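About this split. The held-out portion is used to measure sequence recovery: a designer receives only the structure tokens and must propose an amino acid at every position. Recovery is the fraction of positions where the proposal matches the reference. Here is one held-out target exactly as it appears in the evaluation file.
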């Protein structure tokens, strides 16, 4: 049996198009790996903010604010993408914004807190837009019974992009350190490398990926929703969430996602800070650690996609959440590098599999005519999690005088809650509700 069977794809979809779609995961993984996880996060806390007690909270707050901006604007963007069949055009704009803002981070040196915060916020907002928009292509490419494995193809391939970017950055950092150059010299260069790889790799996506959706109405979006500003975004947030509540299992998945994604957000954005502050890792050690995590994540995402299609969406996600709970216990108990490396490997396996599994579950539970909009809601749940998780971690470290071990234990509670909430999701019932919504009489009337 081939690893990449053609019968996993919808009629008319060629493997080269799936490769193009996967290349976006390849492209944007360098941003999360280098900027949010391995390099800039620790650089911000230790150098830009000079290791102050409030530095971790400041970093968490910047990411939380970017998530709040996404929550206010993503519903309108998702609705516009569906109405205008504009996912690909909006993806190009968000990609350009993230690449430029990431390159601008090269200008952040010691003490440049405002500059760093502004461009971290902008880059993360544009990154998140792109992540949501590209995910909405998944149900157009994969058959319903193959969403898990096709999502896993893209997510696992993405980690190789993260490893490529991190590997090039690590090679430069090692050279720079050998020359006696400080972090204020080599970290800005890694930002330029990351931006360049993001832009180059994403260009393959725009060449190969097709926009299959059709516009759903001809009038302007503002004529229906009252404009494109904050008021329209808030109105769209309310209307979309109200409609999503009709799909009880999709809504239950969103609530579950807020819980477990809060924990994942801590690992993604603060793993390097924990390694640096709690265990005394050097930057090169941290980068090597994240490199290993990416390898484990690639294996987890690829293999678990096949397991997900075999055993079902809910059991597959549940097993990964149990793995996350184990990871937090190992990390909290680690007093030296050895056990923390084990915890990091477990985190990698769980990261790739749980995030890919969640993306596939959204695909099977969302109505066909509103995929970008429902993926937008999924993005909102992830962004809310990105506020709750890192802010909780930052507050715990601040209130306990820098006790990162207590903070990582608090992170484990998010995964426990997510596992409990997952029991409320009935996938078969949710799929049936989405299929009923796809019938002509049940399609949403956007002209009212």
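Reference sequence for scoring:
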């Amino acid at each position: 049996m081939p690893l990449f069977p053609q019968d996993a794809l919808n009629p008319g979809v060629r493997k080269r198009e799936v490769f193009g779609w996967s290349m976006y995961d390849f492209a944007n993984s360098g941003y999360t790996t280098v900027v949010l996880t391995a390099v800039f996060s620790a650089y911000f806390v230790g150098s830009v903010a000079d290791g102050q007690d409030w530095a971790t909270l400041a970093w968490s707050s910047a990411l939380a604010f970017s998530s709040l901006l996404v929550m206010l604007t993503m519903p309108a963007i998702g609705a516009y993408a569906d109405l205008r069949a504009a996912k690909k055009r909006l993806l190009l704009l968000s990609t350009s914004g993230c690449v430029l803002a990431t390159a601008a981070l090269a200008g952040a040196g010691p003490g440049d807190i405002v500059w760093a915060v502004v461009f971290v916020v902008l880059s993360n907002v544009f990154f998140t837009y792109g992540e949501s928009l590209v995910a909405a292509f998944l149900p157009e490419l994969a058959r319903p019974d193959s969403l898990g494995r096709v999502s896993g193809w893209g997510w696992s391939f993405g980690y190789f992009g993260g490893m490529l970017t991190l590997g090039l950055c690590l090679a430069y950092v090692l050279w720079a350190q050998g020359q006696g150059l400080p972090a204020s010299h080599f970290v800005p260069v890694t930002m330029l490398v990351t931006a360049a790889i993001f832009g180059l790799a994403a260009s393959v996506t725009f060449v190969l990926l097709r926009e299959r959706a059709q516009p759903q109405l001809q009038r302007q979006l503002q004529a229906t929703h009252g404009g494109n500003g904050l008021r329209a975004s808030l109105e769209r947030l309310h209307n979309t969430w109200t409609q999503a509540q009709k799909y009880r299992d999709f809504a239950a998945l969103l609530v579950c996602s807020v819980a477990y994604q809060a924990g994942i957000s801590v690992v993604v954005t603060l793993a390097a800070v924990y390694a640096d502050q709690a265990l005394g890792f050097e930057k090169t050690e941290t980068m090597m650690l994240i490199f290993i995590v990416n390898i484990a994540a690639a294996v987890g995402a690829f293999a678990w996609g096949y397991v997900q299609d075999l055993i079902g969406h809910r059991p597959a996600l549940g097993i990964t959440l149990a793995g996350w709970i184990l990871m937090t216990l190992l990390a909290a108990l680690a007093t030296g590098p050895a056990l923390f490396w084990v915890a990091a490997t477990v985190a990698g396996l769980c990261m790739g599999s749980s995030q890919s599994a969640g993306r596939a579950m959204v695909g099977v539970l969302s109505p066909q005519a509103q995929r970008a909009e429902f993926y937008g809601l999924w993005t909102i749940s992830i962004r809310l999690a990105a506020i709750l998780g890192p802010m909780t971690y930052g507050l715990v470290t601040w209130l306990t005088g820098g006790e990162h071990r207590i903070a990582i234990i608090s992170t484990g509670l998010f995964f426990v809650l997510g596992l409990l909430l997952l029991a409320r999701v009935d996938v078969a019932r949710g799929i049936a509700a989405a299929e009923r919504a796809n019938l002509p009489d049940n399609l949403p009337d956007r002209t009212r």
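Annotator remark: The domain at 16-209+229-438 is CATH 1.20.1250.20 (Growth Hormone; Chain: A;).
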